[in-house]
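Record type: monomer structure entry
Structure origin: computed from sequence
Chain ID: A
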Amino acid sequence: MPRPSKKRVISCSLRTHQFSAVDQASVMDETIHLSLDEIEAVKLADLDGMYQEQAAAAMQISRQTFGNIIMSAHKKIADFLVNSKRLSIDGGMVTIDGCRLFCGTCNTDWVIDCYDQKNVVCPACNDRNVYCRKKSNNGINIRCWNIQ
């Protein structure tokens, strides 16, 4: 009997969950379902350029599980693109771990969704001296790539 699936940690939710070809006449009726953990794996490996071991650690899963997830995701994305099917992104055993921010002025910590990072100000002191807790290390404060 296989052991129960463990929740995978993803960094943010999506704004769009449905995709299809612009030419609706060529779209097949079949829909490919990509889970949220699969899209997170694609983001970490292909967009962020992480190695599988790093990406697996970020999602709090084993490297083998990450490899299985990314292989499944790549196959589904190829089917979507090559065969002009619809793509739906939803579901999966996931926990959303938003962007952990802190204020460099008053040292307040808070979490926001990754898409809410434009014009971020500290909720305590309204200062723009805001940094990413995840990306800061060794005493060096790093701003998230899209914090204005």
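Annotation 1: Residues 63-82 form the longest helix (20 residues).
Annotation 2: The chain has two domains: 8-95, 98-148.
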